[in-house]
Design brief:
Distance between the termini: 45 Å
Number of helices: 2
Number of strands: 4
Strand content: 25-35%
Structural class: alpha+beta
Order of helices and strands: EEHEEH
Amino acid sequence: MQRATEPTRVVVTVVRSGGIAGLRREWRAEPAPDAVDRWTALIDGCPWDDPPAAEPGADRYQWSIRARRDDSPVREARIGDGHLAGPWRTLVDEVRAESRPRRPDRAR
């Protein structure tokens, strides 16, 4: 008897920090199994091995992006607001559209 395979789980977390008030916002997307292929394409479209550098300076947003699939290593990048473009912007926009912002625990 064959067991049904578990669907691949994808989780993408985006944290925006900085700005004038230094606020931190977090968004998390965990798409349904039927959307995993589309999300995998979004994740794979980002240049994880060569992300743009974070920008130093006061009052600038910094974006931390973390993508995890059950069958792949975790991917992480930190990007300055001025460099959040192309596939990075697309991925961040999709995560933000998929979820409502959460405020992480201050203990982290």
